[in-house]
Structures are given as structure tokens and as C-alpha cells.
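User: Please predict the structure of the protein below. I'd like the answer in C-alpha cell form so I can feed it into my own downstream comparison script.

Assistant: Understood. Taking the following sequence of 174 residues as input:
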Amino acid sequence: MDRSSVSRLPGTALPASASRRLAAVGRDPINLHRALAHAPALLAPVLDLIHALRCDAEVSRGLRELMICRIAQLEGSAYELAHHLPMAAEAGLDSEQLAALERWREADCFSAPQRAVLAYAEHLGAGAARDDAALDVCFGPAEQAELTVTGATYIALARMLRALDVEIDEGVSD
């Protein structure tokens, strides 16, 4: 890998439009952005989607981060876990919950909505049976749509990260 690169692709500058988008929402660029910078027309809508999932969703940030972390585990995405486990903790998930993610079915530290999210993550990410009853008890149609887009987006991102061999950002622990 080229030392100026953060992925299997050669290094490239982040487009000014992406830098402005990130600055407008108070975010610094990360290696994912740098790797996707080779396709600026595609990076822009990815940034918009990620921002909408973070800031415009009705489902709580804690539940969305729980979804993302379980998807990251299922996808084997150390990059996503390195970024999102701290975000999950900031969103209110405790250390017991974060440690129990892979064995959540046996753990008694998750609420009914959290269990519904984890089961849905496994449906999206691993093809497990979908539990419509649990989803319907905990979430309305709009929330289920948000969870679907969240899970599907982070599956796609995990696969982009893997395909491009994106390095975990300096200063982010894996």
C-alpha cells in the first residue's frame, strides 16, 4: 500500500465540496471519506445519507448505534466497530451491553426494543428470520424504515471498507 494512502487505492485529496459538507455538520474527514474521494459524485450522497441517519432519524441514537455495531460484528468490520463502539457508549449503551453484543440472546441486559433491533440486525446482516411481532410492538412503520436504511447502509459501508481495504483512522482504537 502506498504510504500516502489510507486504502488499497492511491492517495487523493478530498474534494472541496466534501470538505464543505463535513465542515457544515462539524465533522472531520475520516479514512472512509478519503478512500471514496476518488468518486466525488458518489461520495456526496453517501455523506448526505450518513448525516441523515445520524441527525434526522426518529429512532434513538442508542438504538441506531446498537444496530450499526451488531452489523459491524456480523460483517467483520473492525473499522466500523472502532468508530461506532465509542459512539454507542456516548449514546448510552453501557459496557455490559457492548461486551454482550455477540451473545445478546443469552444476555439479560437488553430491553425489548434493543432486542428487537439486535434481532433485526441479524435479519438484515445474516439472513435470520425476521420477527415482525417484536418490531411492531416496539416500532412504528417510520422507525422500522429508518432501522432498515440504517442496517442496509452500514452493511454496504462495511463491504466498501473491506473491498477498498480502508485502514482504521489514526487515533481510533480497534
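That's the full C-alpha cell string. The two ends are 20 Å apart (CA to CA).
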